[in-house]
């Protein structure tokens, strides 16, 4: 809405142009509303990524068109140096946002593999593209319109390629950070457009979006023990690691009845929800069971990993929607030391965020990532559909530990049945 108001105010279009703009606006709004109406809570991350790609495309096209609309004399004028530099920045940031967002959408939607792309000499590829784009910037700043347009088109291609390569080189565990980074990129692209179009509102709004996205990305990287520059550059400098630890052993499969017995016998229960809970829409059954236990004097808490789900805060929103009191929902730093005192931990649809390989295996793709230490509890019950790996495609040793029981099946059906039987037990 702010962008529409800005465009109308800046252009002051005549009646015919305004009609065309409103027709385009109406078509876009109708298409967006139709698509958004079909999107569920679990599909929001990829929807956000797709929207970012459109912002990036608009920024790149607007920047190139604005530069192309200058006369030859204008392009040579020293006063248009800022305009030319802003056009280059808008093109570069728009292109990297567009292609990076499309790759992120593909990964989150399951259309592309979540594992990182590791091309030979990938750091050299990134550095070469960056140097070439610096040469393109020189062409844009020469004052020669033809050379400048060629430089902008080259910049769009180079930064579009960088967006594809760098995002593809980022592993699935870091995708929530990528979504916030792309949000930041889209903001800075708007800011560059504001300079180019001499529009203060675009500059201010873009700065707010860009800086807030950058701050959130930094906070998330800090929570995950990741380097922000490393994530931005698609794992810059990451050499080949040794072979990851092989996970061996036999898992223990629990029955529905045995899990009910464990739940009703516990005095301190911690519930760890993950993306699987969101997909199954099991939050209401879990919230109902938590309330039943609390009514019986059993201490119940929820542990949320900073990157649980595919988007920052996704699990917090789902639990709040189900009526879970905010004061029993805790972040990783607040509750990680309490697992050793818990009688029972219920892991529902979480995998990578409770993977002990992050701490036990220095060669693991998620090595060093802070995880919820659920295995410290007296007993752990993991509810998931199958014994398969999580989004990061890393085997989880927790599933094979002696204090862990696996309850396989659909999370919603399982949680509905558990909630009902726990109620029956306490109503006897």
Automatic annotation (TrEMBL):
Enumerate the subcellular locations listed in this protein's record, separating them with semicolons: Cell inner membrane
UniProt superkingdom: Eukaryota
Q: What is the first-listed, main subcellular location in coarse terms?
A: membrane
Q: Where is the NADP transhydrogenase beta-like domain?
A: 17-418
Q: Which GO terms describe its cellular component?
A: mitochondrial inner membrane; plasma membrane
Q: Name the UniProt key words of this record, in alphabetical order.
A: Cell inner membrane, Cell membrane, Membrane, NAD, NADP, Translocase, Transmembrane, Transmembrane helix
One Gene Ontology term from the biological process aspect of the record: NADPH regeneration
Q: What is its EC number?
A: 7.1.1.1
GO MF entries: NADP binding; proton-translocating NAD(P)+ transhydrogenase activity
Which protein family is it in?
Belongs to the PNT beta subunit family.
What is the name attached to this protein's record? Answer: NAD(P) transhydrogenase subunit beta
């Amino acid at each position: 809405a702010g962008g529409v108001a800005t465009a109308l105010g800046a252009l002051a279009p005549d009646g015919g142009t305004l009609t065309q703009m409103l027709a385009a606006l109406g078509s876009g709004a109708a298409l967006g509303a139709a698509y958004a109406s079909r999107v569920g809570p679990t599909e929001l991350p990829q929807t956000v990524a797709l929207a970012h790609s459109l912002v990036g495309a608009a920024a790149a096209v607007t920047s190139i068109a604005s530069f192309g609309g200058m006369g030859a004399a204008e392009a040579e004028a020293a006063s248009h140096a800022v305009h030319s530099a802003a056009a280059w920045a808008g093109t570069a940031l728009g292109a990297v946002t567009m292609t990076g967002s499309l790759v992120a959408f593909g990964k989150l939607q399951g259309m592309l593999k979540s594992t990182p792309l590791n091309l030979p000499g990938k750091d050299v590829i990134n550095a070469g593209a960056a140097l070439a784009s610096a040469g393109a910037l020189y062409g844009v700043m020469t004052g020669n319109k033809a050379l400048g347009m060629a430089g902008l088109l080259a910049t769009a291609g180079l930064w579009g390629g960088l967006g594809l390569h760098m995002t593809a080189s980022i592993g699935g565990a870091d995708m929530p950070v990528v979504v916030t980074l792309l949000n930041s990129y889209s903001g800075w692209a708007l800011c560059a457009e504001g300079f180019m179009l001499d529009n203060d509102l675009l500059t201010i709004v873009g700065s707010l979006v860009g800086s807030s996205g950058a701050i959130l990305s930094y906070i998330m990287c800090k929570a995950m023990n990741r380097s922000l520059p490393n994530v931005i550059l698609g794992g810059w400098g990451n050499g080949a690691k040794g072979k990851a630890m092989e996970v061996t052993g036999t898992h223990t499969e629990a029955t529905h009845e045995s899990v009910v017995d464990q739940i009703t016998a516990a005095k301190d229960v911690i519930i760890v929800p993950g993306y699987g809970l969101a997909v199954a829409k099991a939050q209401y059954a879990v919230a109902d069971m938590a309330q039943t236990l609390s009514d019986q004097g059993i201490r119940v808490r929820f542990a949320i990993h900073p990157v649980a789900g595919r988007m920052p805060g996704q699990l917090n929103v789902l639990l709040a929607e189900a009526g879970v009191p905010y004061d029993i929902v805790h972040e990783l730093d607040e509750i990680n030391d309490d697992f050793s005192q818990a009688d029972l931990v219920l892991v529902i649809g979480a995998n990578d965020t409770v993977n002990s390989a992050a701490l036990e295996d220095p060669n693991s793709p998620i090595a060093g990532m802070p995880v919820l230490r659920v295995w410290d509890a007296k007993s752990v019950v993991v509810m998931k559909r199958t014994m398969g790996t999580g989004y990061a495609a890393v085997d989880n040793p927790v599933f094979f530990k002696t204090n862990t029981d696996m309850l396989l099946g659909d999370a919603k059906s399982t949680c509905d049945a558990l909630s009902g039987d726990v109620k029956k037990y306490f109503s006897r």
